[in-house]
Write a structure and sequence with these properties.
Length: about 300
């Protein structure tokens, strides 16, 4: 499940035809039930393991909603699914999202707050996110409250200059009874670039039998890998911004490192579901780096009919 499912959902809100989704896990279902509730829609075939689901959306109203993965399923992904819908709602939304705040293969809540949030604000997106409780694998039990104001439309972004690093900081989290030298639940390093405001992160989650120092090294290597490619976004922000580029009113540009599979899929789906046009070209790189690209998008300029 990713933001693409929402793009499909949003698209269908405007075209008034049902859409199809692939669903396998509880967190996917929680996300779909959340958008169903947000838009007074109707879901058919929504069960764990189902490969075909039909969502017939109504109007996106806003208001208060709760989504609970009942596992350590990621609240970051629930946020990824619901945020674009909330932006095009008739009024403000308050979403209580429960599950894992720090889960595998998903945006960590710290990533969403420290990296995604300040960058997505450049599109004109405004949201508050209150982290009430952290939740880790396998228990989950985390909770965040997301408050979103709707927008009339999104502005395009231009992120083609990276600047120099001015700050790198790290945060580590432990929970439970094991000493932190042995077991670290989660670590994130964030780097911030001068004047341009680019922000990258490298993160890693603890696993049974893996010593804390290994977790730290993995996160640092992720950050370094991204700093080396000379793009303006890291390998995760790349795919997470595609939906906003597609919906924005005008041409967005983003300098990246190697194009990820998630980004390729996101672009493919965005082009299938809207009239947004993406072009990827190799970037000139004064540092001799061959793996730098510019993703350019002519966004569709989706507008919120209620504002
Ligand atoms: N360490 C990380 N930091 C920030 N974001 C991450 C990290 N790992 C994964 N992501 C983001 O999580 C999202 C994963 O979406 P994805 O569609 O893979 O979810 P999924 O539920 O695992 O679905 P699928 O199994 O179909 O891939 C992507 O947007 C990706 O950028």
């Amino acid at each position: 499940m990713s933001a693409l499912h929402v793009l499909s959902f949003l698209f269908n809100c405007y075209s008034d035809t049902p859409s199809l989704f692939n669903v396998t896990r509880p967190q996917h279902l929680s996300g779909l039930e959340l958008v169903r509730d947000m838009c007074n829609g109707n879901l058919e075939g929504a069960t764990v393991g189902s490969s075909e689901i039909t969502l017939t959306p109504g109007k996106i109203k806003g208001g208060n909603h709760v989504a609970d993965t009942r596992t350590a399923g990621s609240v970051g992904l629930l946020m990824q699914i619901s945020l674009p819908c909330a932006l095009f709602a008739q009024g403000p939304s308050e979403l209580c999202l429960k599950g894992g705040t720090n889960a595998e293969m998903a945006p960590q809540i710290d990533y969403t707050l420290k990296v995604f949030k300040p960058i997505v604000e450049r599109f004109g997106v405004q949201f508050d996110c209150d982290l009430k409780m952290r939740g880790y694998y396998p228990k989950g039990g985390g909770e965040v409250v997301l408050k979103v104001n709707p927008v009339k439309e999104l502005s395009p972004i231009n992120m083609t200059e990276r600047g120099n690093i001015t700050k790198i900081y790290g945060r580590a989290f432990v929970a439970g009874v094991l000493p932190f030298k042995i077991f670290l639940h989660y670590i994130i390093y964030v780097s911030i670039f001068e004047s341009t405001g680019c922000i990258f992160a490298g993160s890693s989650l603890g696993k049974k039998g893996v010593y804390a120092d290994k977790v730290g090294i993995e996160a640092a290597e992720m950050l370094l890998r991204n700093i080396r490619h000379n793009g303006c976004v890291d390998e995760f922000l790349q795919d997470q911004l595609i939906i906003f580029m597609a919906l924005a009113n005008g041409t967005s540009r983003m300098r990246t490192g190697p194009i990820t599979l998630h980004t390729q899929t996101a672009i493919h789906m965005a082009e299938q579901l809207t009239n947004a046009k993406f072009v990827i070209r190799k970037a000139e790189d004064e540092h001799g780096n061959n793996d730098t690209y510019i993703i350019e998008c002519q966004g569709v300029g989706a507008t919120n009919p209620s504002l």
